[in-house]
Amino acid sequence: RLGLTQFSGSWTESNAAEIREAVQMMRDIGVNIIVSLSFEVDLLPLLSSAEDEGLLADNFVWIIIEGSGSAANLGTNPEATRLMAGMLSFEANPVPAFGFQRLARLWSSLGPDDCTRAGAGGIFDVPPSVFSSPPTQYAAFAYDAVAGLAMGMRASDNPHRGTDVLSSLARVSFDGASGPVAFDARLDRNASGLIFTFSRFFTETADWPRQRLVADTETADCSTEPASPEPVSCKRLAPRICKILPGEAAAVDWEAVETVPLLFRDGSATPPEDALLAREREREAERRQQRRLIILLTSVFGALLLLFVALTYRASLSVRNFKRREIAAKQVLEAIRGVHRLDHPCVL
Length: 348
Hints:
The radius of gyration is 41 Å and the shape is elongated. It is 44% helix and 15% strand. Helix 2 links the parallel strand 1 (33-36) and strand 2. It has a five-stranded mixed β-sheet. A two-stranded antiparallel sheet has the order 4-5. The chain has helices at 16-29, 40-52, 67-74, 78-84, 98-108, 112-116, 137-155, 162-169, 275-341, and strands at residues 33-36, 61-65, 88-92, 173-176, 179-182, 195-208, 232-246. The protein is of the alpha/beta class.
């Protein structure tokens, strides 16, 4: 439907050999638009193999599913920063939702005491720095998951029986931190309340561990936490939203999110052409050219054949006429000879 030729490759988690085979298969097929849905542990080996096979050039498009999570966990790894910069991420992203803005305001008012107030014996102890930055998109989904489960338990006849709680979820709906939450007959979340985004990975210079943006100065390897308690300047990946695709029931706070242009690795706003589709068009053009050549050759051969037939017929007529004249001449000659043999006074 999209006019794309699709191929897929897969591998076992953490199996470097299978990852290389999948990348080599993509190289041999000639794909240049690649959608990656992989475990985070496999992402760097995948991209490293792709670089070795020449699949990270500017004419390639890489779209990483749930890439923001990978950027959050791998974003200070120098190799990840280098390989993923300029790539795209596609995901369900609640950040543009009004509910997420409510969560963000609540988040900024919380502190470590709110996590330990219930007397959980230190299980939920968190450093103050957790609340000094905005919540991640996964915090909104976690919040709504807990809220939805609580509402399902409250609406069930027996909150201690899992089947009752599950059946009651079909009646649960609320305006959550990730947008409108409701469930279908299979108890999957209704996707019409979700917001999907395309994001592009940029390289920023930030403080470790606070992740506060600083001037672009000499950077350190921040793949591991520094021994010094002082912030260390390092480069990290930062996804920026390029395009927002809200579901029918989703409400977007357009003023709360600043988007950037959707650009590709070569800096162009126009995606590179699907190499397989372009190759197929070239092959089709070659086939059409071959068909035209065959038609032309057939026409020329047919014309030559007709000319040969005409010349052959003309030659056969000439031969027949020649033979007729030769026979006639012989008959005349025989007649003359016969006359000469006559003993008659009128014969000269």
